[in-house]
Design goal:
single chain; 5-stranded parallel β-sheet; 8 helices; 12 strands; 4-stranded antiparallel β-sheet; 235 residues; 41% helix
Amino acid sequence: MDNMKRILIVDDDDEIRELLEFDVAQSGYFVDTADNGKDGLTKALNNSYDLIILDVMMPKMNGFDVCKNIRQAKLSIPVLMLTAKGTIDDKTIGFDCGADDYLVKPFDIQEVLLRIRVLLRRSQSMPEAALSNEILHAGNIEIFPDTLECIIVNKKIKLTPTEFEILYCLMQHFNNAVTLATLLDEVWGYDSDEDVRMLRVHVGGLRNKIEPDSKKPQYLHTVTNVGYKLTPFGE
């Protein structure tokens, strides 16, 4: 039990919650559940989980507000939104609230399990960077894998796991363009047109946090027809 990853599933649909609980537990995880947003948030704030699967439309508190409160509490746990609200605007709201990944109902349980593995792998591997020779400081930017924070010109910024992973990847290639395919592979571990849109939303959120003016980026630049480039000394 001590070595099992702990996952919290928050969904008011009994059938979906029970299906997820069974399949996720069968895959070797310890599963806890809540059937409304308020109880889900209480459990998230008072227990230790490795990942949260979060519905959006729920009684007492919607998933966007749950996720926002989790991030305001400085919890860096990965959050996977699983919801029928699947427009790009809905996803943008979810990512702005601090979600790391987003799947739309109806879903394939194997896809859910894949996303779980990717998010857990990502959050597990980041602290190891502190023990390696990988770049954690360059120019005006310093990153801290163990706390998912960065410091830019003496300003400490708390990042979501996905935002940190994007910044971390770009930091390893600073001053060089990183392709969308490389970012998708290193951050999510898979590639699709949908994920490109998701990546762009996350980059927008990252810019809002690290740039003095997100409309005139100094650090995180778009490289047309390629991807993105980080210039840690600013431009």
